Amino acid sequence: MKTQDTEQVQFWRGDFGDAYIDRNSNNANNLRARIAFWSQLMACLVGPAPRSILEIGANIGNNLHALRHLTDAEFFALEPNEKARKILVSDGVVPAPNIHNGVASSINLPDKSVDLAFTSSVLIHIHPDDLEVACREIYRVTARYIVCIEYFSDKPEEAHYRGHSERLFKRDFGDYWLKLFPKMETVRYGFAWKRVSGLDNLTWWIFRK
User: Fold this and answer.
1) What is the dihedral of CA 66, 132, 101, 34, to 10 degrees?
2) CB–CB of 60/21 below 8 Å?
3) Dihedral class, residue 163 (left if φ above 0, else alpha if ψ from -120 to 50, else beta)
């Protein structure tokens, strides 16, 4: 399956993506905040716990580090930045064969191959023209759950991102998912308030197929 190498993808593959890694390296406080956050989300899941989890845009695996404390599921990671993929391998959070060079619009996994797939501050960096293809790919590869953790806006809007245009796009991603796949069930939704969560002001949704 061919990777969709858009301007946004090239941006994250290059020097800016490398610099993002340096700014967002994991630390004890960040790990504690993410464990608390993911404990809340995992408690909302219905039925058997997921046995396989895919993060789309995993970067160096900060979310997966936290999830490792909460589940023994098999992890998969999709990441376009080479430096981040090397760190994922060296840290050992995700088995090397389960780390894929790719983007949301082109996921080299079979249909329904993972129980849960999620994005965390990733859909916001996909151009609106490419968003539907990306969401349909995510839907294709997951068997049960989609978790969406993104910046929220009532209406689609572009925001400048560290001096760059066409690199950050906000919207009601929950509404977008349900318009694409109206038969999905909304399991839970919520907001991670930066003041108490230690994370960015993130809106999250859990959907079940």
Assistant:
1) -10
2) yes
3) left
Helix (H, G, I), strand (E, B) or coil at 102: coil
79: pLDDT strictly greater than 50: yes
Assess contact for 84 and 23: CB atoms under 8 A: no
Rg (C-alpha) for the chain, rounded Å, is 16
As a whole number of angstroms, the distance between CA 56 and CA 159 comes to 22
Read off the pTM.
0.89
Q: In whole angstroms, what is the distance from residue 134 CA to residue 107 CA?
A: 9
Q: How far apart (Å, rounded) are the C-alpha atoms in residues 51 and 64?
A: 14
Picking from 89, 81, 162, 164, the residue whose alpha carbon sits closest to that of residue 127 is: 164
Q: Which helix (H) or strand (E) holds 172?
A: none
Summarised one tens digit per residue, pLDDT across range 129-147 is 999 999 999 999 999 999 9
79/193 Cα distance (integer angstroms): 27
Whether the Cβ atoms of residue 148 and residue 174 lie closer than 8 Å to each other: yes
Per the structure block, which two tokens stand in for 51?
């046995």
Q: Are 17 and 82 in contact (CB under 8 A)?
A: no
How many of the other CB atoms lie within 10 Å of CB of 173?
24
Taking residues 177-190, report their average pLDDT: 98
For the cut 50, the answer to whether the pLDDT of residue 204 exceeds it is: yes
Phi and psi torsions of 81, nearest 5°: -90, 125
